[in-house]
Amino acid sequence: MKRPLIILIGAVVLGAAIFTGSFYASQRATVACCVKPADDLDWLRTEFYLSDAEMTHIRELHEGYLPQCAEMCAKIAAKKGELESIPGTGTNLTAEAQAKLNEIAALRAQCQAQMLQHFIAVSQAMPPEQGQRYLAEMKQLTLGTNELMEQSMSDHAGHEHGTN
Amino acid sequence: MKENHNPAFDPQVSALLRAARGAPTLPPRFEQNVWRRIEAAEAPAAPAAWLDALARLILRPRFAVAATAVLLLAGIFAGTREGRQLARHDAQMNYLASVVPHALR
C-alpha cells in the first residue's frame, strides 16, 4: 500500500518539476530574445507590422516630438516648483496657489493634447487599419487610466450620495 | 446365503433419516450479514489494487518517457506563449515610457 503511494507522489512531484522548469526556462529565453530595451519603437514595428520606410518616418516623428514633450515637462515642473514656494496660510488655499494649480492643469491639458496630436501623426504614418488600431490602443492606454480613475471617483461619490 | 441388506441404501430409511436431522434455523438477516462481511473483507483491497496498477504503469519506461516528453513540451509551449506576452508588455511599456510625459503619469 505504501510503496505505490510513494511512487505516485514522486511521479507527481517530478512531473510538476519538469513542467515548471521547462515553463520558466522557455519563458525567460523568449523574453530575452524578443525584448530590445535599447529601441523604444521596437514595439511599434512588431505589433503593427511596419515596414522599414514606415519605421523611418515614425522615428522622425518620434524624435521631433520628444523635445516638445521635454519642454512641456520642464514647464510643468517649474510651475510645481512655484506652487511649492508659495508660503502656506495654514489650512486655507490661497488665491495665488489656486492660480498656480489652474496654470498646472492648463499645462497638463496642453501636454496631453500635444501627445494625442503625436499619436494621430504616428497613426497616419501607418497603414490605415494598423493606424486605427494604434490610435485606439494608445487612447485606451493613456486616457483610459484617467477615465477609469474618474469613473471610480464618480461611482464612489454616487455611493456616498446613495447612503446619505 | 444370507442377503446383504444395508439399511443406508433403503430409500425408506434414508427418508426417515433426512426428516430426523432437521434444518437448523438461521439467525435473522443471515444472508445480508454474510454479504456485508464479504464486502467488508473485499473493500480494503480495492484502492491498493488501482494504486498498484497505477504505480506499475508509472514505472514502465515507455510511459515514463512519454509522460516526460509531454510535460516538457507542454511547459515549453506554455512558457513561450507567456514569454511572448511578457515581451510584448515590456516593449509596450518601453514605448509608452518614451512618449507619455512624466507629468501625465
Notes on the protein architecture:
The complex is a heterodimer of chains A (164) and B (105). With 164 residues, chain A is mainly alpha-helical. Chain A is built from six helices and no strands. Chain B is mostly helical and 105 residues long. Chain B is 73% helix and 0% strand. Chain B has four helices and no strands. Chain B is rod-shaped, with a radius of gyration of 40 Å. The mean pLDDT of chain B is 81.
Which features does this protein show?
heterodimer; A: 164 residues; mainly alpha; 84% helix; disordered C terminus; B: 105 residues
What is the makeup of the main sheet of chain A? none
Uncertain runs of chain A: 157-164
Rg result of chain A: 26 Å
- From the alpha carbons, calculate the radius of gyration of chain B and give it in angstroms: 40 Å
Strand-residue proportion of chain B: under 5%
The chain pair with the largest interface is:
A-B, 50 and 39 residues
Ends distance of chain A: 66 Å
Write the topology of this structure:
The complex is a heterodimer of chains A (164) and B (105).
Chain A: H1 2-34, H2 42-47, H3 52-85, H4 95-124, H5 128-142, H6 144-163
Helix pairs in contact in A: 3-4, 4-5
Chain B: H1 11-21, H2 30-42, H3 45-58, H4 61-99
Provide a concise account of the structure shown.
The complex is a heterodimer of chains A (164) and B (105). Helix content of chain A is 84%, strand content 0%. Chain A has six helices and no strands.
